[in-house]
C-alpha cells in the first residue's frame, strides 16, 4: 500500500497497513533543500523540488503544499512584506473603513503571479508523484481570516460587533475570492484542498461570533470543494475546544488542529465522523524537544486513537524552519511502527 492509498483509506474510515504521515513542513523543507524563503516562494520549480526532496527523504505518505498566509491578501490589495528568510506576511490593511466594501469590484485572481506560482508548484508535484503520494493543495486563508487581513485585526474585531451588515458583505466578497482559489487549485490535479482560518478561533473571537461570521462562509467553500469532488481540510490554530462541534457542522472531511486542543475531545467528537490531522506541538516538541520527547508525544496520540483509523499524523501547525531533521525522522519512525499488522485486516 502506498501513501496515496493509505490516506484514501483513512478518509473513508478504513484501516490502512500503517498510519499515514503528512507534514506541514514547507519552511523546514526549504531549508533542507538549501533555499531561502524568498527563493522558495518566487520559483515554482524550486518550491516543487523542495517538496519532492522532503517527501522522498522522509518517505511521507502525503504532501501539504503551502507557500505563506498572505497570498490571497496580496491579491486583493493588502500590503505584504517579503522577508528573505521568513514567509511573506501582511503589513497593513486594504480597507480603512468597512463601508469601502461598497466600492469594491469583483476581481479575477487567476492572473495574480503569486497565485499562479502556488498553482504551478502543485501541478509539478502532482505530475511527479501521480498516485504514489497524496497531494494536498492548501488554498491560503478562509473568508473570515482574509477579511480580517483586509481590515486589520483591531478594526476587524470592532466591525464584528458594530457593523454586521457591512461585515457580511465583506465576508461574501472574501468567500468569492476563496472559492476562486479552490476552483483553480482543483485544476492542478491535487487530491485534497484546505484553508486556514486561524483568526476565527476561540483565542480571537467568541463561539457565538464564530457561528455567525465564520462558520457559514467556511461551509460555502467546503461545499464548493465537494462540488469539485475534492475532500477538504479545515485548519484553525490554538485551542478550539469550544467550537469543535461547530467546526464539524461545516462538513469537512478532516480537521487539522493544534496541540492546544484537548486530544480527548478531538477523539470524542471526530473519531467516527471525520479524519483528524495533527497534532504534535511544532515548536515545543518538534523544534525544541529531544527525540525521546517526540516519540513520547506521538505514542500518546496513537494511544488515544488506537480504536480509530481516522488519523493522519502531523504537527499541529507549520513546522519551524530550524527543526532538527532527527525529530522529524523520529515522528515518522514512531508512527510507522505503532500500528499492529492485524489491525489493518479488520
Description:
α2 crosses α4 (44-58), α4 (44-58) runs parallel beside α6 and α14 (291-304) runs parallel beside α15 (325-336). Helix content is 49%, strand content 12%. The strands form 2 sheets. The protein has an 8-stranded parallel β-sheet. The chain has a two-stranded antiparallel ribbon with strand order 3-4. The two termini are 15 Å apart. By secondary structure, it is an alpha/beta fold. The chain has a single domain (3-345), classed as TIM Barrel (Alpha-Beta Barrel).
Low-pLDDT regions: none
- Please outline the major beta sheet: 8 strands, parallel
Structural class: alpha/beta
Strand content: 5-15%
What gyration radius follows from the Cα positions, in whole Å? Answer: 19 Å
Question: How would you name the oligomeric state of the polypeptide chains in this document?
Answer: single chain
Average pLDDT confidence is 96
Strand order of the largest sheet: 1-2-5-6-7-8-9-10
SSE arrangement, N to C:
HEHHHEHEEHEHHHEHEHEHEHHEH
The CATH topology is what? TIM Barrel
Overall body shape: globular
Measured between the Cα atoms of the first and last residue, the distance is: 15 Å
CATH class: Alpha Beta
The CATH architecture designation is: Alpha-Beta Barrel
Helicity range: 40-55%
SS summary, helix count: 15
Number of domains: 1
Could you tell me the number of beta strands?
10
